[in-house]
Specification:
- The structure is a single chain.
- This protein is mainly α and 167 residues long.
- The protein contains six helices and two strands.
- The protein has one domain: Bromodomain-like (Up-down Bundle), CATH 1.20.1550.
- The protein has helices at residues 7-31, 38-60, 64-93, 106-112, 115-123, 141-160; strands at 135-136, 139-140.
- It has a two-stranded antiparallel sheet.
Length: 167
């Protein structure tokens, strides 16, 4: 049997966990020169969503209904990030193409295209998004990202059915 954990502590631990992952991503970007592709940026948005929802839930300390709403929001943010990560893994597993590109970076897209076209360009990326620049234990960043999103979703589902009183 799994130990019980109050929702407020869960949201604090979740927000600290995701903050640590985001800080490590920025460390890789700015100190190890691993620049993120468009799909990596979208996965970060998923982690930022999980972080914000869990931090707000921790600070808000809602009742049972509010706890469940926050957990659903965490699941949705993690699910969106996970789907982008799965798309990137599919691209990474494809045979390399001679002249494929991931597309323009996010700043160039935002400056030159309407917002609806920016989202289309981000979701139809290939090329650089398929390149594996970093691995740990044989898994790429995208694979680790999907694994972390999966763990977040599992924990939120577990906590959803174990709603605690306010503490």
């Amino acid at each position: 049997m799994l130990p019980t954990l109050h929702s407020r502590k869960y949201f604090l631990l979740l927000s600290l966990f995701v903050l640590g992952m985001l800080l490590y991503a920025y460390y890789l970007q700015y100190f190890q020169d691993l620049f993120p592709c468009n799909l990596c940026i979208l996965q970060r948005f998923g982690f930022i969503g999980v972080f914000l929802f869990s931090l707000i839930a921790f600070l808000h300390n809602p009742g049972r209904l509010g706890q469940r709403i926050y957990k659903i929001l965490v699941i949705l943010a993690a699910g969106a990030g996970m789907s982008v990560g799965i798309r990137q893994i599919i691209l990474q597993r494809q045979p390399p193409k001679l002249f494929s590109q991931c597309g323009a970076d996010l700043n160039a897209l935002l400056l030159n295209l309407p917002l609806s076209d920016v989202f289309n360009a981000l979701f139809y990326a290939s090329g650089d998004c398929a390149k594996v620049d970093w691995t740990f234990l044989g898994f790429s960043i995208a694979e680790w990202s999907v694994a972390m999103f999966f763990l977040i979703i599992l924990s939120a589902i577990y906590m959803f059915f174990n709603v605690s009183k306010r503490i």
